[in-house]
Sequence to fold (614 residues):
Amino acid sequence: MSSHALYAKGLTKHFGSVRAVDGVDLKVEQGSAFGLIGQNGAGKTTFIKLMLSIARPTSGELQLLGGNPNDPSIRRRVGYLPERLDLPPFFTPVACLKSIARLKGMSTSEADAGIQRVLRWVGLEEEAWERKVGRFSKGMKQRTGLAAALLGDPDVLVLDEPTDGIDPVGRAQIRAVIQEAHQRGTTLFLNSHLLAETEKICTHVAIMNRGRVVRTGNIDALKSQDAFSVVFDANAGALDGKSVVDIAGVHGFFVDDDAPPVDGGAAFGYAGKDAAELSQAIRAALDDGLVLLSMAPAMRTLESVLEETVHHEQAKAAAERSVA
Amino acid sequence: MNIINVAVDVLRELLARKFILAAFVFIAFGMLVLTLALDLDVVDGGISAVKVLGLGGELDKGAGFSASDALAIVLKPLTYMFFYMSLAAGIVATSDIAAKMLSPGRVELYLSLPVRRVELVVGTYVGVLFIATVATTFTVGGVSLILFFKLETLSWAPIAGAAAAVLGFAAVYALMLLMTCWVRSGALAAASGMMVFIMSAVTSNRETFLSLFSGWFADVLGVLIAPLPRLHTLAKLGANLQQVNSSKVEAAKEALTFVQAEWMSAVFGCVLFAAACVAAASYVVNSKDY
Fold:
């Protein structure tokens, strides 16, 4: 269990009759880049708050860096950027960071060196260091918040919507900072609605739906499983007057409009992860005159994985309700 | 240690406010006016002041009237004025401080740091109380020094009066802090502070007030107002202390008698009320999810 940056077992949080987090089991390896995704109200932010002892669990077990997050010595090793960051508007970034350094128990010399380093790291221009945070743009506030989270070289970096409302250039810069922190050995725990960001930063994700973790794993594995992408020659002859689409459809292939276009090819998808079944379908299609140009596991976007998972869970819940 | 660190944050937040800075400038200006005004003949000035404040009757009662006597009579109503004005200003100036510390986006950041929740509450309280003490010391210390250089007499009475004012504010702010921790509203905190402020007229004269009622209603009312701080008694304590230096023996004795009889209940009542409110605020924050 000690190799886990985060370990949750049966973690539950109720707000009255609402189950914001419902029996979550989750393990996050130290040094990994982990993303939490799901719809609004899925329980992601509540889970993060439980992780940091900002909210208290109703039941279940939770360990952060092998200890209780309620313990200040554990939280000293964590950097956190909240979703709705509210820095004191009268403070300058340096004053903000000095306050955080004091509260983290850093010495004055450690703090001074650390503050300069992280402010440069997040790309906050030096002339802004002594300006009041209240006059900052959203992007500059986020950079200050990220600098605060990075101060003291935390073992775990918990970022709740770090690039929300930031322009694409700023987003790329913040992403680069986060990735660098990860390369230096920091465990990342990211909650973002911007799934493209999660895809670029994280190696593993957990999908939350109605307070439960319904799917978890390596992003590439989640994106590639359960489907194949197949391209047949669109101009193949001897098809007995039938179209490529018709023949492919007979053997279980469906037109994949999202697939990248291939010169002279028609892209199809094939649902299912059984390779033997797929090869049998392809052989049958070839017997009917189709010509295979390429075949690969279908790499869906994280968005489509999330969408599919949520729909599946909703259908399951509806079926359960109808049975009840 | 983090109590002090949180208190430092509160101080910085308070000092960054224009209202607080304006108050310090206003106080400094008042002291400048006092310094220049005391260039007049002191006793004449004192007697004039006494007459302006309608206290001429006391002046005519005895012979051997000194500058200390005039000063004592002038300082008494001034202490009342200072006590209530500073309390009201303190309530307004600090009402939203705890609400800001506990605002969404700020409290999460604090709680994710190695800060215990009780440290956050007590640190906020200590920070606000510190600035109240500094403002009071600045005012009263300044006035005392001016009087010392002009009259060559130094009295501890204004300092004790100021301490009474700080103690009163400590009790009021503790309740404001509790309200904020409970509902995270600066407006409600100010309202609760003002409620205690206004109720002090009742709580400091509880026997007279309760005599207006009878039976179980009076008993219930008595229980309800019993824990509230007796602010007017504290103000009276501060005001009477101003007379201790008077050469009029009777007035001095009367002031000291009051001090001995009342200070225990007024002072310890305020301390207990403040401690209970801060403990309750800590409990509320500790049991809450943010």
